[in-house]
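Async update (no meeting this week)

Hi team, since we skipped the sync, here's where things stand on the single-chain job. The sequence we agreed to prioritize is pasted below, unchanged from the tracker. I ran it this morning and attached the output directly underneath so nobody has to dig for it. Comments welcome in thread, and please keep replies under the output.
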Amino acid sequence: MDKNKQDTYFEFLRFCVDPKGEVPECSKDIVWHDLLDFAIKQRIVGIFFYGMERMVEHENKPIDEDVMEWFYHSNKIRKKNVLLYETCAFVSKTFRSEGFRNCILKGQGNALRYPDPYIRMSGDIDVWLDGGCSKVIRYVKDNVPMARAVYHHIEFRKVKGIDVEAHYRPSFLNNMIANHRLQKYFKEETDRQFGNVMTLPGGVKQMSVPTTDFDRIFQMVHISNHFFHEGIGLRQFLDYFFVLNQGFSNAERDHDAGMFRRLGLYGFAGAVMYVEQVAFGLPESLLIVPVDEKRGRFLLEEIICAGNFGQYDKRPGSKVKSGPLKKNLQRLYRDMRFVCYFPSESLWEPVFRLWHFFWRTFNA
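Output:
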């Protein structure tokens, strides 16, 4: 993408995430159809339209034809969020009735932190179930015999047309030493996270979602995981912006920074802080670790090229449909491209992949 266009989009995006922000001058240079293409690629249409709605009286407001195109997509997002809230509450209640304490990860828990809880571009439902790997897999396979299990979750059946993933681990790291520390942290947090009940928009239904301090760790790991395995777009960084925007104490900052060091993610976290500043205008006071500009520029370039979950990445080593041999060679190429910037996860990735093959042989 042209650097001037990218800077314009980010300047407008920083206005969109700030409910008190003033319409920037750059809005007069925006081709709204092109911005919509960018927003779809990065899965952040809702937050852009949230900003556009505040331009009604501004001289640079979009023309009616542009607004209608955006309104069509925005209306779909709102309807999907209504369905997701209803379905999440139903899924959570159903699993509880089956004896599984649970917590809805990412998704609608993140949407509750947005300035409007109906503007996040939603996806599937990730539910973290209590009971451990063997118990969850056995339960799911009793209900869905062909369900496919991987290290951290197993695919459940669709509920009201929405994919559901049952997690026995919220996430994981390639670095198996760091992953051991991460899984210990998750285990220590189970009671607190399963007990964090939130009331959904409308004030009737409820579900458990992660606490903000947990999400500062978990969602950093989640971003890292997607980045190293398939690619990632701006939506996950927008989610993390609203997590950080909840605020934290100096003691909590020190704790989180220490956790990132123990998990081998300190350098990656510095890159994430750079993206949060450049794209969304995160203030210095909400940085968990200092900005790492060198790594951050590399990460931001990957985000722009790859789009949501790497779906738009056409470079060698990108996520494409292919046979096992070619796919593994592509992953090695990807590891080599990342190793100078993020050595821990990159060097461990082939090791974890081989170990995971044997894990699935005996568990999936």
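Quick observations from my side:
Residues 13 and 91 are 33 Å apart (CA to CA).
The chain has 14 helices and six strands.
Reply here if anything looks off.
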